[in-house]
Amino acid sequence: MKQLPLILVFLVLGALAAAAPSAADEPYTPPTITIDVIDSITPNSDITVRVTVQNTTGTRMWRSRVYLDIMSTPTSIRQHLTFYETEEHLTRYKVVRGDKDYMEPGEVQTATFRISVGSTMPAVTIPLYVALQTEIGLCEEGCAPYLRSVQNDIVVERNEPNIFLTLDVTDVQMEVGDCDIAQGGFSVTYTMENTSQTTAFTVRLAFDTPPVPLTILILPQMPLSSIRAGEQMEGTIYISTGTLSPGTIPLVARVTYTDYYGKSFSSTADLTITVVNDAYQLFMAGEGAMAECSYDEAAEAYEAALVIYEEVENDDMAQRCRERLARIGAVRYHLQAADTLTAGSYADAKTLYQQARSAYVQANDCVGVALCDQGILACNALLGGGADTPDDGNGGGGTPVLTVVLAVIIAGLAGYIVLRRNR
Fold first, then answer.
1. Which backbone phi and psi does 350 adopt, to 5 degrees?
2. Same domain, residue pair 349 and 393
3. Same structural domain for residues 84 and 122?
């Protein structure tokens, strides 16, 4: 019986504990944390972190503090950062004027932090952690503690160093010899200049894989250990060719290098080898005349070039000549079709459009084909007759429909010829 009072005491204490309100057990919605910060940055710049906290718990938030959890950022990254502010008490101003240190439901507070990214920062991703520490509940003492950390990643982009590569010539012409082939060698002087404020390391100059076999020697030998900021160096590229047929050979000289932390960069310069013969000169004369819409002159040049290319069995260039000649024929038919349509001879215009279309197909010119298709459809519509398109026996007659059709077709042809001329 002596144990009964002790048992009753435990029962009473348990009942009281169950009946007493517990802040930790009270349900609430977590507060809202919004972070405004840039996604990427370059070294030697500042980061502004703007943190907005809204009390969306439905009750009071006591002693709210926002801070940068800098210790969670790896040391290898943190050593390149300078933190000017690391924490902010959101209701400090209330305490200063004698109010209690809490945020009412719905209240919004903002804290701003500034971080400087040093010039030595490598190209990495900075994991930035922002934490909110507060207490939630109506009681001033013993409220439920709350801690939340939010991560934002900031990418560091390194745009230095920068090597500017130039060649003293960009187009080397070689004349063909016997059997209509060229063979020989030439040299090109190159310059590499570090136009940035940081040193470039492991500098290597080479050519992308050329379309034909070439022997290329670059002096001084690559790679170079480094090129310092503002430094410039020159060298020579020696190129020996095998047997080359007439035409153009595009080459790409590429310099690759790294920064101090191993990030790779590159820049390029173009070099073209042009192997010329009489046929190539004629072909280029045709290109120039074609650009000026001098079709007779262009056709004469292409025809002369075609004869030579067929003799030496250069099928690729011969086909290019045939396509150019087909395009010239197509444009001539096209212009005649437009004139004939304007004169009201719809049937003849349709025939000319069909001839132009066939020539455009041979020239592999899909735009010209599409324009001719429009002209053929217009001729068919006009030949069909109707209240607005009286037929004069040859599909002739001036009508509002004809006016519209002619305006569309002639404008399209004129625009097409200008487009071709500017290419």
1. -65, -40
2. yes
3. yes
Ordered DSSP codes for 268-306: EEEEEEEEE-HHHHHHHHHHHHHHTT-HHHHHHHHHHHH
Closest among 148, 137, 123, 143 to 58, alpha carbons compared: 137
What is the C-alpha to C-alpha distance for residues 246 and 321, in angstroms, rounded to an integer? 14
Each residue's pLDDT tens digit, 132-144: 999 998 887 768 8
Contact 381, 405 (CB under 8 A): yes
286 lies in some domain: no
Give the C-alpha separation, 341 to 349, whole Å. 5
Rounded to 5°, the CA angle 252-253-259 comes to 125
> What is the SS3 assignment for 147?
strand
CA distance 248 to 212: 11
262 in the Ramachandran plot: left (φ > 0), alpha (ψ -120 to 50) or beta? left
> What domain range includes position 112?
24-156
Q: Are residues 146 and 169 in the same domain?
A: no
Q: Are residues 330 and 393 in the same domain?
A: yes
d(CA 374, CA 135): 76
**% of the chain at pLDDT higher than 90:** 39
Looking at every residue in the chain, the average pLDDT score rounds to 81
User: DSSP code of 244?
Assistant: B
52: left (phi over 0), alpha (psi -120 to 50) or beta: beta
